[in-house]
């Protein structure tokens, strides 16, 4: 399986990584609180979000065991137009890697993260969008907030698997990101990433030494699509990431992930 040979950091380096993350969070907290107060009510929350991505980049660069990089050509109009950005989901380190993408986004994240000490406050201040799983009311609020953001010309970031992959293989995609893109008539922008599973494996409280890389892929237009096109759009987006992943994994020195014979059945057992 992909990434199983990644070395684990020493307790000394791991402790430093926790300490520098805490120090960065405490340093950014008052700045982001002020930015939140100044820009509350704005539909894009662009400036508070920029501070959160700066936090992600700073703390990643100060972590001696992580090496992050991105490539690919973003669409020319992404700085002024809404896109639904999607990526495969390997690790809690994914948002740190994706903070290096050269455009602003609002992120959809599970509600539990917003309740965490310190990090939850940063998430609230930066204007990211909470989602409570299984709550129709929460889903409706999330969709309304995403649509408002897209209309104002800012991309929205969603992990369509809905949870992290335990082994590097992509889980089945959920419908939400693609429903949103069709309803808003904005393009889907896939991003393929690899290596973050070794940075912070699912279920681990420790860190791994790893290189991780994200590749921006070709956008997929939705103009003229309707609800009947949902499955084909979802499949096109998934196939785009699947085709790119071997090259992204090779970029970070990873072997190809094992492909399950029946991904949907395997996901149902998780």
Task: Describe it.
This protein is of the alpha/beta class and 270 residues long. It has a single domain, classed as 3-Layer(aba) Sandwich (Glycerol-3-phosphate (1)-acyltransferase). The chain has 9 helices and 7 strands. Strands 1-7-6-2-5-3-4 form a 7-stranded mixed β-sheet, sandwiched between helices. Helix 1 runs parallel beside helix 4. The longest helix is centred in the N-terminal third of the chain and has 29 residues. The two termini are 17 Å apart.
List keywords for this structure.
alpha/beta; Glycerol-3-phosphate (1)-acyltransferase; seven-stranded mixed sheet; 7 strands; 42% helix; disordered C terminus
Give the arrangement of secondary structure elements:
Blueprint: H1 11-39, H2 46-61, E1 66-71, E2 84-87, H3 94-98, E3 106-110, H4 119-125, E4 129-131, H5 136-151, E5 156-158, H6 176-184, E6 188-194, H7 196-199, E7 210-216, H8 230-251, H9 263-268
Parallel strand pairs: 1-7, 2-5, 2-6, 3-4, 3-5
Antiparallel strand pairs: 6-7
Concise description?
With 270 residues, the protein is α/β, with parallel strands linked by helices.
Low-confidence stretches: 1-7, 259-270
CATH homologous superfamily assignment: Glycerol-3-phosphate (1)-acyltransferase
In CATH, the architecture is 3-Layer(aba) Sandwich
Number of discrete domains = 1
In the sheet with the most strands, the strands line up as 1-7-6-2-5-3-4
Structural class: alpha/beta
CATH topology: Glycerol-3-phosphate (1)-acyltransferase
CATH class designation: Alpha Beta
Termini gap: 17 Å
Shape: globular
Which value, in Å, is the CA radius of gyration?
Answer: 18 Å
Percent range of helical residues: 40-55%
What's the total number of strands? 7
């Amino acid at each position: 399986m992909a990434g199983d040979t990644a070395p684990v950091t020493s307790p000394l380096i791991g402790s430093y990584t926790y300490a520098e993350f805490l120090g960065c969070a405490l340093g950014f907290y008052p700045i982001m609180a002020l930015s939140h107060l100044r820009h509350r009510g704005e539909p894009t929350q662009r400036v508070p979000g920029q501070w959160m991505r700066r936090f992600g980049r700073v703390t990643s660069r100060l972590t001696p065991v992580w090496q992050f990089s991105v490539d690919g050509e973003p669409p020319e109009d992404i700085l002024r137009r809404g896109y639904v950005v999607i990526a495969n989901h390997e690790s809690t380190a994914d948002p740190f890697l994706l903070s290096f993408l050269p455009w602003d986004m609002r992120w959809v994240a599970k509600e539990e993260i917003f309740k965490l000490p310190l990090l939850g406050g940063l998430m609230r201040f930066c204007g990211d969008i909470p989602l409570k799983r299984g709550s129709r009311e929460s889903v409706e609020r999330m969709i309304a907030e995403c649509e408002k953001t897209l209309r104002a010309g800012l991309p929205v970031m969603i992990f369509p698997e809905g949870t992290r992959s335990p082994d590097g293989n992509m889980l089945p995609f959920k419908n939400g990101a693609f429903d949103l893109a069709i309803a808003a008539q904005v393009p889907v922008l896939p991003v393929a990433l690899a290596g973050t599973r070794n940075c912070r494996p699912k279920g681990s409280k420790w860190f791994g030494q790893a290189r991780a890389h994200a590749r921006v892929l070709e956008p997929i237009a939705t103009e003229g699509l309707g609800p009947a096109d949902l499955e084909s759009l979802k499949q096109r987006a998934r196939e785009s990431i699947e085709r790119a992943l071997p090259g992204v994994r090779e970029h970070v020195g990873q072997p190809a992930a094992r492909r399950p014979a029946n991904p949907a059945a395997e996901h149902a057992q998780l």
